[in-house]
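fold-stage: in
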Amino acid sequence: MVRSERADRECYQNAPGAKSLALNSLARRAAGQAESAVATSGTVYLSALPTCLCGAGGIWAARTLSAPPQTTKARYKALLEPPGDWQPALRSFTSSMKIQTNNSIAVVLPPPIGDSLIGMVLVNNLVRNGYQPVVFGWVAEQLAEWFPWVRVGRADEYAGAFEVVIELRPTAQGSTLARSGKTLCLADLPAYHGPKHHMVDRIVDIAVTTFQLQDVTRSNGLILPPGVVRRAAANRVVIHPTGSHPEKMWSRPKFLALARSLERLGLKPSFLVAPNEFDAWRGISAHGHEVNALDLGDVARWIAESDWFIGNDSGLGHLASSIGVPTLTLFMRRGLARSWRPGWAPGEIVLPLNVVPSGKLKERLWKQLLTVRRVMSGFQVLRKSNPTALFR
């Protein structure tokens, strides 16, 4: 079943200290180089190690302390070394990233479809470099045919079985899989929040800099199963009009108008929704529109056999891009598109008219400011570019 992406995909934007050079440097260099990090900054942070890394404390909590320019390096260092076992925990965190190929490794994917597919980039790179991770998550389970090289596990069968457990973000099951009760959480690494713009590139950066992998790719390794024929339904345009966040969903009347515009071009629009959304959309079939609600594996097949994909900022756009189908994605803001646009096959994004000054107003008014004509113009750009699938 296509489940809702309930996790907040923008949590990285609000992570305390995510944009702080001082905190990022401290986390990246860890205890051995903390002095040089704070020596170059006028801001000091007192932080607790993340729960997912140390089994204690909260997420990185940053607190700014003002200090005059003449404050010495020694005073900064003293402020950064609170009493207790904080420094040993930090050293443990640093060394724990150096995993061995013979370690038992689990990768726990978050529930959102798009996040899981991006997380599979790390899984693919681990396998390419000789590791044998077991992957957990409903997306990996339902797309097992599309990732035949992946070992998929069920959490209740692997309690406490792994020396190393990697998560993109903290999950309920992650710590239960680890012998130590601790996990390596990518969302607590500075590279997860930048400086690379796109999330796929951030995961690749983590693979190189944190895990020190040598043979690295942007691909998540998705493979078309036997029997799936690419573009078998020529001229079919999959339209995904829903998503996990209502504020990110373009209006139904505009999607229906878009479908009629596509039909006038001789194309075949096909609406695709989750099974739990079907009752709300089944009525459009009375007006001649095709609408389907499928399990995730069948969704992948339906998209693969289509020519194009148009949808809101949601996980199915990432799935289409993984498969190699060109995508057109509707975003409320450019900043979201910069990090979360589908990142594999050729694709275009469409943004509302840029006529309001603030981000909050853009989020409130984007549905009104994004017209059917503007979306059709974006689709024509994508259609005329004669793209081919990009697999790296």
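fold-stage: in (second)
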Amino acid sequence: MNVTIVKTYKTLSHLNDTETHLFGTLDEMAIDYKIYSHPIIFTVEEGEAFKKQIPGDHGKCLFLKDKRSNNHYLVATHIHTRPDLKALAKALDEKRFSFGKEEDMVDMIGVRPGSVTPLAIINDQDKKIHSIVLDKTLEGSNSVVFHPLRNDLSISLSFDDLVRFLKNYASNIVALAL
């Protein structure tokens, strides 16, 4: 599987306005990041081949909904972490988590399954995401890797810069051992 380092997002002709806005915002915030182009990846398993070509702590992001409160969460974890959803719900004082519906995902954060990322909070104009939960195992990493709103690209940035970005858009960010 080929991975290509992209020198600047401005050379990517296939970006939509939202994706261009994300990269422009990262630049405005003076966040140092690298972009990698690769074939479309929908699952962690499909991404195993490209992980070796992209340095950093690779992450995945879950779009979850609580049954009782109807609150929605973005949960960003290390790629190999399998969060215990019952324990997570309890830690967040919720009843029971399930995966959010695709139509809610598109409406709230503007991405589809396979492209969920904590960076999608930039699209949550109506503040419908209750909280972003970050896996403590990613704390302090010089390079965390997520998709930047699309699953044929990956972006690496420091954990601290990710948090700095998220603070501009999220009303609640929680770090937990998952």
